Task: inverse folding
């Protein structure tokens, strides 16, 4: 069975390229959300195998969304990978300390994004 | 599902580039407006914040569309615009040069 993944990102272009990449390169099922609040609702509804979560979003940002996901028993165990354009090591450490599975950096290579995610999650 | 062939993925990404080009152009326009304001000593906090955000978004997306140098240049701008008091006056020419280079890059991506 194909893996399923929820992409939460307010930037349409990033969200669409990531979805294209994961659907076509890896054959995964992709659900998208354009805000933290919408992402929380979709995570509860769809119960994806993993969540790819943007850090900088208006309203509820990525770290806040992650904490809300962890608070809810329905989403607490879904692996979350943060996606950020912040490349400074201090930012990377701060995000990693949240307890996410991994911090992935934008820009990503559409050809290898699914491999990066699969390696982190141990998906073969 | 069989993995997609590289040429097919590239073609699909090219289609997304065309679809999102207006938004990407708009981000470059924000940078150009900030350069113009900075050159006339009229860079407001709002200009600076908008330029910082535009640079951040361009840094995150251009490399995904195979414009790796665009990501590097946009990151340089993001650092300059994220300073509390705005870019250093001595960097005016560099700000303008990067914005111009990004414009050329975005308009010429095939």
Result:
């Amino acid at each position: 069975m194909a893996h399923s993944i929820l992409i939460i990102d307010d930037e349409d272009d990033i969200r669409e390229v990531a979805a294209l990449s994961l659907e076509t390169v890896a054959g995964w099922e992709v659900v998208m959300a354009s805000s933290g609040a919408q992402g929380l609702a979709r995570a509860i509804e769809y119960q994806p195998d993993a969540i790819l979560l943007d850090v900088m979003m208006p309203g509820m940002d990525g770290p806040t969304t992650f904490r809300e996901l962890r608070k809810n028993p329905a989403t607490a165990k879904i692996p979350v990978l943060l996606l950020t354009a912040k490349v400074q090591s201090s930012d990377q450490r701060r995000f990693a300390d949240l307890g996410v599975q991994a911090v992935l950096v934008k820009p990503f290579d559409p050809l290898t994004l699914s491999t990066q995610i699969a390696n982190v999650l141990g998906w073969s | 599902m069989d993995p997609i062939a590289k040429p097919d993925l590239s073609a699909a990404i090219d289609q997304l580039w065309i679809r999102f080009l207006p938004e990407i152009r708009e981000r470059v326009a924000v940078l150009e407006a900030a350069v113009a304001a900075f050159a006339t000593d009229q860079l407001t906090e709002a200009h600076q914040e908008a330029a910082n955000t535009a640079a951040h978004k361009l840094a995150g997306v251009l490399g995904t569309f195979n414009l790796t140098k665009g990501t590097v240049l946009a990151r340089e701008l993001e650092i300059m615009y994220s300073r509390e008091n705005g870019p250093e006056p001595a960097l005016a020419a560099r700000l303008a040069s990067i914005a111009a280079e990004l414009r050329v890059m975005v308009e010429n991506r095939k």
